[in-house]
């Protein structure tokens, strides 16, 4: 729950920032000179790009949470069986062992979104965030019946 509150607070701060940057862009365009109009238009692009990224990130998180709830209802969420260091961090060898099992499960059932979800969790535990995100995107696409890129 804490993570959701932090995410919402940061998203709200970003939206305020987008509004402030956008207003500066409008002010530059209103100046009317060639240079200020060019800079103003360039500045106006930034809030749109930022808003698009914020939307995509929020949509991804909501979709992943939707799959997690569904998998939890089925009793298929991966169990936390990872060894931890005294400081609480995940032991790398333990994460690699679980990852190998999840990868084998996914290779046996490449069209099952559940196996891709569990593989995404294993990637995350192994601190490979880019691959975790790609695996989760694949799980979401398979679940929703959308085409999956190779």
TrEMBL record:
The keyword Membrane applies. The chain crosses the membrane at residues 7-27, 33-55. Keywords: Membrane, Transmembrane, Transmembrane helix. InterPro entries: TPR-like_helical_dom_sf. The keyword Transmembrane helix applies. This is Tetratricopeptide repeat protein. The lineage of its organism: Bacteria, Bacillati, Actinomycetota, Actinomycetes, Kitasatosporales.
